[in-house]
Amino acid sequence: MFSTELAPHGRLLTGTRGQIAIWNLGKKLKEYVIEAHNGYVTSLVLIDNERFLSGSSDGTLKMWHLSSRCCTNIMQIKSRPCLLQVSMIAMNLVATASQDGVVRYWDLQEGKEKKHFGQQQHKSTNCLLNNSNRLQLMVGSADHMIRIYGARYLPDRS
């Protein structure tokens, strides 16, 4: 298991090698398995009660409808393979970080990358949201550094 995310109605999402499992925690059983990616599912993020995102080492970020278990959008990361991590920044705006050292912001309504930054020598391996201030993003990397990016790094939302 490479990623987990709590979902509404007592469910748990888990990501493994190419698959996403939806568990019923009350019944303690696996309800569904989705053949989701061609690589490891390295990140799962709930968008709202009906949608979630999966990031994978196959270089894709996919949006899913929870009830129907259907993929509604696929966004291609330019580098692969990657250990892709995903964080919600605001409604319909997510950040991804991967091993190429680049942090990317994605507009989920458009399904497109809006902005990117970072440097090749800072091999990013994790992307974390600062919960106390949603206008900051903390990125941990393989060089043992944590970088904090402020609001000036956010894409223009107009």
Provide a brief overview of the structure.
The protein has 158 residues and is an all-beta fold.
CATH topology of the largest domain: Thrombin, subunit H
User: How large a portion of the residues is in β-strands, by DSSP E?
Assistant: over 45%
**Strand ordering within the main sheet:** 1-2-3-4-5-6-7
Silhouette: globular
**SS content category:** mainly beta
Low-confidence stretches: none
Rg from alpha-carbon coordinates: 15 Å
Order of helices and strands: EEEEEEEEEEEEEE
Instruction: Give the beta-strand count.
Output: 14
Largest beta-sheet details: 7 strands, antiparallel
Describe the SSE topology.
Elements: E1 3-7, E2 11-15, E3 17-24, E4 29-46, E5 51-56, E6 60-65, E7 70-76, E8 85-90, E9 93-97, E10 102-107, E11 112-118, E12 124-129, E13 137-141, E14 146-149
Antiparallel strand pairs: 1-2, 2-3, 3-4, 4-5, 5-6, 6-7, 8-9, 9-10, 10-11, 12-13, 13-14
